[in-house]
Amino acid sequence: MREAARPWERLRQVLVTVGPGALWLVVFVLIPTLIMFVASLMSRGSLGQLVPPLGLHNYARFFSDPLFIEIIGRSLVIGFWSTVFIVLLGYPLAFYIAQSRHKEVLLLLVVIPFFTNFLIRVYAWIVVFQKEGLVNSLFAAFGLPPAELLPSTFAVYVATVYTYLPFFVLPLYAAVERIDWSQLEAAYDLGARPIRAFWEAIFPQTLPGLFAGFLLVFIPAVGTFVIADLLGGGKVTLVGNLIQLQFGSAQNWAFGSAASMVLMGMVLLGLWLYARTQGEKGLDKLV
Predict the structure, then answer these.
(1) By CB neighbour count within 10 A (0-12 exposed, 13-18 middle, 19+ buried), where does 104 fall?
(2) Is the dihedral of CA 25, 31, 34, 40 positive or negative?
(3) Which of 94, 113, 203, 267 is the most buried (most CB within 10 A)?
């Protein structure tokens, strides 16, 4: 009887532990994704409604129109270079925090921006970059002419780096905390110079956190639309702005769904590349 009851006990344990989370993912992730995929195969009716027949015409339109290809390219470029700037800033910052005696305070300073609404933080950059804002006031104090910082691609880059920097620092900090520093000492004992010792002994140990932070920054940076909309002033159109426009004033939910599925495909491609380079161990650390 006990042997026969074990499968049912295991099933009950799975339902109790994994069941609620799985149900949440099915209802709020899988089903909406399937609905969006079906909508992406439909067409826009005369009143903006979704109408049959099903087909790949929205995807064909997306990849055949040079304007949409340009938007995708611009989104990838801005997302990539924003991520590069974040890596250059966040990599040494993570090491400094991990080796500081006040790491708790520094980590608190890193996450403090999350205590404020994202939209309010973006609007704060408008105050900084506007014609009579803080930056131009400093320029005036030094006798320099005012700069046209808003709207501009520069403002989009600055706000993107500021917004997503903590998403890179935190996973990298976790990787730095697990570094085996004895490998650095061994590299010195074998005659390696400081730069090579760091590159051979320390840098490989930070790769899981580096890749995780890169993805956590690059993916939302490519898909963001609020920053480009407010600070770009319509001059910097990203794929997120395109999707928002299709579901808003354009009333073309079918094409907007197709663009959303393309963006989701880019996200899944990034996760697949991460899995290929880091394996299951890297994915465990990402989660």
Answers:
(1) exposed
(2) negative
(3) 94
